[in-house]
Amino acid sequence: MKKRFLAFLMVTFLLCGCTSYERDESAGEVIQISLADMESMMKKGQEFTIAFTQSMCGYCEDFHELFENYRQNHHVVLYEVPLEREKEQPNVNRAIIQQYFPEFDKTPGIFYANGGKCIDSIHQSQRMTEELFDNWVKKHKLDKKVN
Description:
Blueprint: H1 2-19, E1 29-32, H2 35-43, E2 48-53, H3 58-70, E3 77-82, H4 90-100, E4 109-114, E5 117-121, H5 130-140
């Protein structure tokens, strides 16, 4: 009986200890990059969060407003590719993006990459809310405090 209790206690400790982390409450930032920069980051296997946006996109404007408020006390670095600044035609840009982020279909496309692979995205079928975004940030520990 004592061994079972200790085993249960140990498993509980491991599960609880693995799910929490210290969050960095300093301000986050948006860094604008090009598709070529994104390709370079993917080839280097960097860990990053990226948003593909357009200036004439209402959903992108909503996300900008949400992230601007959110980043004030969540240290999330978001790399943004404003697609209207790219020199190629939209279908070429889409093909480049989909090589790395196959789920990309519309803007804003928000993804988490690590090790040269797309790990996750915020599904565009979901209405973007701060709670949804915060849960996604916590899932990937994107605002983890680095000591």
